[in-house]
Write a structure and sequence with these properties.
This protein is an alpha+beta fold. The protein is built from two helices and six strands; from the N terminus they run H-E-H-E-E-E-E-E.
């Protein structure tokens, strides 16, 4: 018959394996179909200059969300990467693009936004979206 110490050690290892598996699950990016609520979250975040990381110098307006990736964070928050079709604008025009206005600098951008218990929303970064190159057939 195994000793109590052996049983407790085995139980501890099993619990450690379960918690490690859960931690790995929370750190994986998952592609989502953007909902109206997530698109609204993006626009709200882009419009509020006060929640931008101080290193961000380019502001954008959004025409559409091309893709959305999300992951849960260990502290209970969530991190989003929006691939946004949008345009570079002055800070006061950040948010949703106007249909009737011509924007000279447009393209796709990666917008990283996090939410959590310490900060409701934060715009972490806005960068030009890098396309993965694909082999072409000749």
């Amino acid at each position: 018959m195994p000793s109590v110490g052996t049983f407790v050690s085995a139980l501890g290892l099993a619990l450690l394996a379960i918690s490690t598996t859960q931690a790995a699950t929370t750190s994986k990016w998952v592609e989502l179909d953007p909902t109206k609520a997530e698109e609204s979250l993006l626009i709200t975040a882009l419009e509020d200059e006060n929640i931008y990381n101080p290193d961000i110098t380019d502001f954008i307006c959004s025409k559409s969300v091309e893709a959305l990736y999300a992951k849960s964070q260990a502290h209970g928050g969530k991190k989003y990467t929006f691939v946004v079709n949008g345009c570079i604008v002055r800070s006061e025009y950040a948010g949703r693009c106007f249909d009737s206005y011509f924007y000279p600098e447009c393209g796709n951008f990666d917008v990283v936004i996090s939410s959590g218990p310490k900060k409701e929303l934060e715009v972490n970064s806005i960068k030009i979206h890098k396309m993965k190159s694909q082999a072409t057939k000749n």
